Amino acid sequence: MTNRLVAGILCAGWMAAAVPLYAQDAARKDLVLRGDAQCTRCHDAEDNPAVLAIGKTRHGTTADGRTPSCVNCHGASETHINKPADAKERPGPERTFSKKSTTPVAARNQACLTCHQGGNRIHWQSSTHASRDLACSSCHQIHTAHDKARNKQTQTEVCFQCHKEQRAQVNRPSHHPVMEGKMSCSSCHNVHGDNPKQLVRASVNETCFSCHTEKRGPFVHNHQPVQEDCSICHNPHGTTAANLLKSRPPFLCQQCHSHTSHPSQASGLPTGRTTSNSLSGSVARGCLNCHTNIHGSNSTQNSATVGRFRR
Amino acid sequence: MHNLGNTAFRLTTICASVMAACGLAMAQEDAAENPAVPESSVSIGLGNWSQDRRQQGIFDGMRDSGVYGLFDLDIAKRNAATGTWLTLSGRNLGLDTRELRAEWLRQGNIGAFIEYGRTPRDNPYTFNTGLQGIGSNTLVVSGAGANALPFSQIELGTRRDLTHVGFYKNLVPGLDFRLSFKNEEKDGTRQWGRGGSTEFAVEPIDSTTRHLEAKLEFSGERLQLSGGYYGNWYNNNIAPGYVDTRVNGGNQAFTGAGVTRYALSLPLDNEAHQVFLNGGYNFTHTTRGTFKLQYTQATQNEHLPTQDIPGLSLAGSPQSLNGEINTTLVQLGLTARPTSQLSVLANLRYHDMRDKTPQARFVKTTSTGHVCDSTVVNNIVCVDNTPLSFKTTDIKLEGTYRLPLGYSAVAGADFRRQDRTVPMGAASTLPNGADDQRYVPFRAKVEEDTYRMQLRRAMSETVNGAIAFLHSRRDGSAYNRTNEAESDEINPIHISDRQRNKWRLSLDWTPVEPLSIQFNVEDARDRYTVSAARPYGLRDGSAVLYSVDASYAINDNWQINAWYARDKTQATQFGQRATNGGAAAAEKDARLEDTGDSFGIGTQGRVGGKTRIGADFQWIRNTNRYPESLTLAGAGSTFPVSAGQTVIGPLPDIENKLTRLKFFATYAAQKNAELRFDFIHERWTTNDWSWLFADGTPYTYTGGTAPNFFDGTTVTQSPKQTSNFLGIRYIYRFQ
């Protein structure tokens, strides 16, 4: 009898303790996501409040039926939720996303692509970033309302973690207003796509013409490299020469032009006031002092020099 | 110029309205922070720059010394029951760089937004000029002697005002409709030239650019599609499409002898229309196919305004260019993971930019005694418009094999074939086979093959990294001949034979938990093939980058980070210098260098429970060198001489240095409010000689003939710009 009583008490105690956490979870309210109770029973505000910040984001908008629960991204993680009796330490979730995660990148990204494969990410798998094994979480922070990668003012902090050359270039005297927060890397680049140089549009020029539409032409007098690729002459990330030019005139122009007369002049600064174009190719705007409509001209002036972008 | 005095009323108005809007939210502050409720904040304050920042303030709206209003807001309200967001965000609302965005979104169903932003661009130089009519379509240049006009200091710059509205609607599960419309007004002035000689002019800018995109996006488990329309319009609001420039007291006609009146053409209205369809399909869990289809028609068919100037244009030449460029893009891609270790990628891309603009003759001068279509070489007397078409096919193949211990090996190859054939009518080809419409040799075909390898390690807790090597080779068909023998002696940089080798090493090292160090080394070498018949242009180039970044968490409250980077590009450029102005013919050998050194260190942490402080130091130096040696090949001077002036070369080095020291401190005055103090010391120095004569005196724009020069505009740049900023903000957070 005593034994039975003891057994009964033990059994009741076990039932009380082990009843199943699922039952308790059923009674427990979700904190921020649908069905998060089984996770937030441990990962609550005292454990790690930053995790719950997902509730402030689009992912945490539970009225939108498409939004996930914890397990949609991290996997069902049965052994993490219910530690096996023979396990010394509680196994981790099925999918983790930290820098030290051992979850294969493809599996991590699949958790995101299940919902986010459309739109600008249709070509993610053939992008340079994908083939370099970048995880979505390498750049994006999910459990925060302010993902640095999606904020124009902070995005460079993310991109410059790898792109050191561009970090150096944006601080050159001539640059796009990236560090000033008026543009971001993603103004020109679709980092989820597979266009050349991962640009937002199909070509360099198509991308540049989005803002510099006046240079699209076509012009009566086209300047061939302008029509082909702006980056032949310009480095959009930053340069020392004015107007994002890769090199200073006359050197830049003389990478293609080898005419007789003044276009072939050697570099040097004039000693004083002059109207000689043979003395003026280095100072001020260099060759552009006279060839001022260098991106193209619509002049119909009946002059042999009009095709040289001076009018 | 853009200081608080100009914005006080606007600030006050916005503050009042925002505070009114926030009133309800503030009333709810008694409750503890709810992790399921979005946060909002309002920040308001004042800042003062002690001196002008003409270089560093080009874009940030705080170029001039003075007091500025600092006002930002970020308000996000969400109805949890309906999933409806109402957000209002504003940044730099007290500055010329202000941005404001409002959005209403019933998440997953329907939404709309409107945003506005201004981007200033202030020219960092000061111009002292007599030019009249700046900003208009009529410019009068200060004349010589008694015809000189009064001089004054002017500033140039542009403002872009962008308004963007968007609409989103989920039509059925997985199918969304998105509409985006942007309208950008660009106004201001831009430094220009008159084109006759080194004469100062200012381009008036008043244009409107519009973008419209409407697309349907479908996203299913296997199939994703995105298709729609994108249109883009440019309208130049400066009539009549050119700028009439003349010299005070000069010849007032556009044509005839001794002309000093020019019509400078402006960009004309143009537009582009695009239809597109992108798609992807998951054949299996590990195999995916993608495609892109895109067709764009860009046109420029405005009336050519300089045709309306009597006697200026070739009689009978077209009144409109009727420009039309049609671009087709077709791309097919396949990615697969046939085994858990191996993934492969194949991509075929066809991009055809076809210039359908009709060819016509716009210039036919006979002043030199020649007529068009003659056998005369080296004297262009006829000018046609020059349509340019490019047809490019790219093939990309890549495979990644995953090895044990987190290693992966990647191998890839890219093959590019480009058809650059230019349409040349019989009239454009001289009897000797030369192309009389181009000044630079041209290739009908260019090919480039690139091979890549990479070994990388990921998913290690202590050391991750990659080493990559790239080799490419570019060549092409024979060059077209230009109409000038000397022009044919160059290898144009973008189509010349080139061999490129590039290494890249990156390493992330975490020796102990709180310390992480990142190393990067990049080394790229280009070698251009030259020949005895074509010896000029770039010979070789290199780009080298070293960088190290480190961060260290001293304890839970303090962390420190630092970085150093050095980048250096070099180019060896050969050329010929023709006899000119008494200078002997010569061979030029330029060794150009561009070096950047940058260093930064920063720390931030907590002092007590309410105070957070931090400091950042940044030092950047850019050095450019332009050594060029001349080997004279005959009698004559080293440099040309004109009216008693010559040039002194080679060019001096240029060094720009930026030092910026920033401190901040925040004090939590309340649980949900803090005060923030900022101090910035900024110093920029340069010895840029761009606007100087050889003796260091200011460069002077000059037209006419000595001693009766006209214009006389000078440009000055402050070589040392130091300024200090002190700012205080009150930041209030609420839910």
Textual characterization of the structure:
- The complex is a heterodimer of chains A (311) and B (735).
- In chain A, 26% of the residues lie in helices and 2% in strands.
- With 311 residues, chain A is mostly helical.
- The radius of gyration of chain A is 31 Å and the shape is elongated.
- Chain A has helices at 2-18, 21-27, 37-40, 49-52, 70-74, 78-81, 105-116, 128-131, 136-139, 155-159, 164-169, 204-208, 224-228, and strands at residues 221-222, 269-270, 296-297.
- The relative contact order of chain A is 0.06.
- Chain A starts with a helix and ends in a 14-residue tail after the last strand.
- Chain B is mostly beta strands and 735 residues long.
- Mean pLDDT of chain B is 91; it is low at 1-31.
- In chain B, the strands form 4 sheets. Chain B has a 26-stranded antiparallel beta barrel. A 4-stranded antiparallel β-sheet of chain B has the order 8-6-37-36, with no helix packed on it. In chain B, strands 7-13-14 form a 3-stranded mixed β-sheet, with no helix packed on it.
- In chain B, a hairpin with an 8-residue loop joins β29 (558-577) and β30.
- Chain B contains 1 helix and 38 strands.
- Among the domains of chain B are: 1-106 and 727-735, no CATH class; 125-147 and 158-268, no CATH class.
- The two termini of chain B are 37 Å apart.
- Chains A and B meet through α7, α11, β1, α13 and β2 of A and β2, β3, β5, β10 and β11 of B.
- β2 (269-270) of chain A pairs antiparallel with β33 of chain B, so a sheet runs across the interface.
